[in-house]
Amino acid sequence: MPREHKYPFLPYAPARYPEPDMITKGRDLLCLMEKRRSVRFFSDEPVPRECIDLAIRVANTAPSGAHQQPWKFAVIGDAATKKQIRLAAEVEERENYEGGRLTPEWREALAHLETTSDKGYLETAPWLVVCFAEKYGIRPDGNRRKHYYVNESVGIACGFFISALHTMGLVTLTHTPNPMSFLTEICHRPGNERPYILFPVGYAAQDAEVPDLRRKSLAEVVVESPGLIA
Ligand code: IYR
């Protein structure tokens, strides 16, 4: 029985694979994603702009509330703007680290990452990409259009973006200098957009290091339904 629609719909037949191939594909992706790390040591080697555009195009395929795609990606590659962003981020981070804005509990949670208020990577990385979340849209007549599930939507898009970069052999850091309203001014973004994540993007430095972290096991993150009852 064909369904009746008020709006246009299309048939959709996503690829299906034999079970062994499903497992192989899942394992291959897991193997790739297990090697992803957040990086704070970047090479200044140039990265083709096309890689950035491809990662943003991947992000733009993310599901979003009511398909409103409430995101914007500001791409910064010039030294002067990167410096401006670094200096502004460091002003805020000095307040956090040296000015006592980080609570003792927060400080303790971060200790093993050895982060400081020095954000040199914001100048070293060839690209900075700032994801902005559109709190609401603007209708052609200038009125506001409510957006739904903005945080969920933009978070998923950023996850896609990070995965795309990793797939291309690039690294990034999910950087959220706090507060980051300075990015609105520096990137000349309108008031309906809120800075969401600042991503330095590039190749890892040859001598890059990352904290020796372990990820939770499957058993630690999965709850089976009988477990909910017990
Ligand atoms: N925004 C600060 C502090 C910081 C917060 C978290 I949560 C981290 O995972 C890492 C750092 C900074 O970027 O230094």
Verbal overview:
The chain has a domain at 38-79 and 124-206: NADH Oxidase (3-Layer(aba) Sandwich). The chain is globular. The protein has 230 residues and is α+β, with helices and mostly antiparallel strands. A hairpin with a 5-residue loop joins strand 3 (136-138) and strand 4 (144-146). The mean pLDDT is 96. It has 9 helices and 6 strands; from the N terminus they run H-H-E-H-H-H-E-E-E-H-E-H-E-H-H. Bound molecules: 3-iodo-tyrosine.
Strand order of the largest sheet: 1-2-6-5
Assembly category: single chain
Supply the CATH class of the domain at 38-79 and 124-206: Alpha Beta
Largest sheet: 4 strands, antiparallel
- Return residue spans where pLDDT drops below 50 for at least 5 consecutive residues: none
Radius of gyration: 21 Å
What is the CATH superfamily of the domain at 38-79 and 124-206?
A: NADH Oxidase
SSE arrangement, N to C: HHEHHHEEEHEHEHH
Q: How is the secondary structure organized here?
A:
Layout (H helix, E strand, L loop, with lengths): L18 H16 L14 H11 L11 E6 L2 H19 L6 H7 L10 H4 L2 E8 L1 E3 L5 E3 L3 H18 L3 E2 L9 H5 L6 E10 L15 H4 L3 H5 L1
Antiparallel strand pairs: 1-2, 2-6, 3-4, 5-6
Helix pairs in contact: 2-6
This protein binds 3-iodo-tyrosine.
3-iodo-tyrosine (IYR) binds next to helix 3.
